[in-house]
Every structure is written in structure tokens, then in C-alpha cells.
Amino acid sequence: MSVSLKVISFLFIFLFFRNGLYADDRLHIITLNNQLEYPWSMAWVNQGSHVLITLKRGQIVILDKQGKKIFQFHLDLPIAYVGQGGLLDIVLHPHYPQNHWVYFSYSRELSSGYTTAVARAKITVNPPKLTQLETIYSAKAVSDNTHHFGSRLAFDAKQRLYVTVGDRGERSNAQHLTNDFGKVLRLTDKGQPAMGNPFSDSSDKRHEIFSYGHRNPQGLVYDSKTNTMWLHEHGPLGGDEVNLVKAGNNYGWPMATYGREYSGLLISEFTSLPGMIAPVWYWIPSIAPSGMSIYYGKLFKDWQGQLLVGALKAKLLVRLPVANKRIQQEQRFAMTARIRDVDVGVDGAIYALTDESSGKLLKIMPR
């Protein structure tokens, strides 16, 4: 090979790595399954022997830990597979081994538009069985728009269910407490407003609201060791945020933001305002974060208690070290595709779902 050809080849390979077209060589990544049609979320069951994965068209598939498909359920729900909508997040009840309740969110079609809804069913894998399917909550965030459903779920230590709802493209509603647009909701495991919610004593505010002023939160995780709830949300052009979510807080959207209109024009001249909570971390330019987990495991020993975030647009796995509830740096790992969800297995490996028509379940370990 001539010297000039070697140089060209080197530059070609360098640019491919730099632009994230190959997986990061600091990690050992195994593809367990590459036949998942637009997967959105996952939940590991039975001590990590199987995983439940939602597909946007309305199915839940069961894979074993080697990635082999065991079974597929089709949910009989009014799922709107439109725009950013479909069957979305999935989480287990904290007492799943005893009661087998599984919770999932979806974009629901109504006569007046679409909204974010939460359903649950009893699901077992040995044998595969789904019973008692029911929708337990439909957000008061109905719009003709087919984007910004939010739709992440998490339970806290008191078995209260947190639900993120995006602003549905109607940004000013995120500041109003008479609706569910741009909110984090806190419900009982049966779908009722939880006791002790910040506006539960108000006659003119919705009792299910926990926090507000959000744009499109697609990452939510509860850290049981520190009793903290972490959320991330999409900004527009820049201004993706990580927030520590607390009762009654206003997180600013759209009155205070680091993001701009997609045209480049200002949305607000303010990045912070009195009475509104500034983000713990933000990204400019946007990475389009989706999915989040907290690492506690044996394989990445130096990552205990740190946040792991997937990125769609930037095709990344991002590690965010947390110290005293603050984030001051990040570490980026280039991936080969848009990352929709991130989870930590009982084996200490990191698992990720790619956002593709032939989506993948990836197992990530130290090199």
C-alpha cells in the first residue's frame, strides 16, 4: 500500500471513530438481539434471567439473558403509534416477585387528540402470561400534536409511582397547575393522586402534580440509597437538562432555559429566574438524552452511584459522576446508533436499547 493511501485510510478510520460510527473501544459491547422494531424500554425480571422490552407498535417481548426471544404479548390498548408516540416505558412494581404487577406508559388516542397514559398488567415469564390489563391513569394533557409525550416511570421507596408528561408542544401550559402538560406526576400504584402531594390541598390545582415547568422528560430514575429522584429532559436547540426533582418545584420551562428556538432565536432571555430551579447539569449543543439509570454493580467498580444517560442525536452513553447531589463533569462513550434506554443488570453489566427499525439490545462491560 502506498504512503498516500495509508494516510487516506488512517484519516477515514479516524473520522469514523470521531463521529461515533463505531462503538467506543474503551467498552466491551455485545449485541444480544438485533431484531427489535423500535424498542423503547426494558425491565429485568426473575433475578435477571429474562427481560421485558416494549416495542413502540404495542408489543412487549420477553428475551432470555442471552437475547433469545421467548414470547411476545400484544397489548389490547388504544395505543397511538404516531409521531413520537406508541408503547413507551416499562417498570416493575417494587413488590413484583410477590404480585407480578408491571407498569407501562403509552400515548393514548382519544376523540379529542392524544395524551400520555399509564397502564398495568400482571405478567409472568414462566409460563408467559399477561392478565388483568388496565389503564390506571390518563394525563390531562390532550393535544393534536404527536410529540413530547415524556412518559418515563419510576417508583420510590414508598411505592409511589412517578410519571413524566411532556409539554406536548404547548409550552406555556407547563407553567399552569390546572393541567398535566410539562409535569411530573406522583400517583399511588393504583393510579390515584398520592397523599402528601404538594398541591393536594388546593381546589384550583391538580392534585397529582409533583413538579412542573418541564419540556419533555425522557429520563427518570430513583436512587434508593440517597432517596433522590433524578430526571433529564430534552431542550430544543441546546438546553437539555438534568434535574434533581423535588416536590412543588418549578423547573422553569419555557420562561427560563438554556435552549433556543430551532431557528436560533431566543425562547427566553433568562436562563434562571427567582422561584425556578436551575438544572444540575445541561448540554449545549443538545445530545437528545433518552433513558437513564444509576450504577450500582460489581463490574464498573469506580462508577458507584453515578448516572448513566443514553443519547439519541449524539449516539452516546454518558456517565455523570454525582457528588453531594451535584454534577461537575461527564464522560462520553461513542455508540453506533441512537440510544433509547439504559439499564443496569443484576450482573453489573450495562444494557442499552438502540432506537432503530432493527433495534438492538446491547450488553456493555469493561474492556
TrEMBL record:
Xref: InterPro entries: 6-blade_b-propeller_TolB-like (IPR011042), Glc/Sorbosone_DH (IPR012938), Quinoprot_gluc/sorb_DH_b-prop (IPR011041)
Coiled coil location: none
Residues passing through the membrane, by range: none
Entry-linked Pfam families: GSDH
Record-annotated Glucose/Sorbosone dehydrogenase domain positions: 36-363
Domain of life: Bacteria
PANTHER family: ALDOSE SUGAR DEHYDROGENASE YLII, HEDGEHOG-INTERACTING PROTEIN
Protein name per Swiss-Prot or TrEMBL: PQQ-dependent sugar dehydrogenase
Taxonomic source organism: Zooshikella harenae
